[in-house]
Structure prediction request, 233 residues.
Amino acid sequence: MKLRQIERWIERELEFEKFDDVSNNGLQIAREGDDIKVIAFAVDGSVASIKSAAKAGAQLLVVHHGISWGGGIRRLTGPQYNVVKAAMDANIALYAVHLPLDASLKYGNNREIARLLGLRNLQRAFSYHGNLIGLVGMSSRRVEVKLGNRSVVLRPRQKVGVCSGGAGEFAVEAKELGCNVFITGEASWGEVIAAQNANANLTCCGHYETETFGVNALARAVAKRLGIEVVVL
Prediction:
C-alpha cells in the first residue's frame, strides 16, 4: 500500500482537522520509496523503537510521541539527530499521532481504558489546547483490574474520570465534575498536592502504560481495515 493512502486513512479516522495540537501530527520523517508492506506501532519515536521496527521488517513506524513539537526541529543535533539518523539508515518513515489518539472515540487511549473499566454513559471532558481529550463515565459494576503499574478497584455507580499520559492537572477538575476517581498516567508533585487539597482521588498508572491502549487499538484497526501487516513493539 502507498504511504500516502495510509496517511489519509489515519487522518480521516482520527479526525486530525479537529485538533490544535502541540505535536506536529502526521509524517515527521519521510523515506525513499512509498510502498509500505509492514507497519510498526509504538508509543515513542525513539532510536530503540526504530531499530525494533527495522528488525521486524517495517517500512513505517507509527507512534504516539513523535520528535517534532511546537515550532518543530530547530537544530538537528543530539537525541533528535540520533533518531533521524536511525530512521534514515533503516529507510523507515516516522508518523506521529498525539492528541487525536488520546481523544478518539474509536481507537483512543481513554476510550480503551474506559472500555477496560466497563464505564458507561461516557462524556468528553478535560480540555487541553482547546481539545476535550479525556472522558468521564459511570461504573456499572464492581471492577478490579491491573492498569499499568496499579490495581484499580471501582465500585458500582462510581463516577470516573480518565485522561491518559501526564494529565494530573485535571484531578481537581475531575473532582469538581463529581468524579469519585480520576485515572491518569502521571502527575507532578504540585498536581498531587493540589489533588490532596481538593480531596480528589488521583490514581496514577504510568504515563507510558496508559498510552499503549490507543497504539494497540489503532494497530488492530489498520490490520483489519487496510489489510496490511502490523507489528506492535
Observations:
- The mean pLDDT is 96.
- Residues 103-207 form a domain with the Udp-n-acetylmuramoylalanyl-d-glutamate--2,6- Diaminopimelate Ligase; Chain: A, domain 1 fold (CATH 3.40.1390.30).
- The chain has two domains: 3-98+213-232, 103-207.
- Residues 65 and 206 are 15 Å apart (CA to CA).
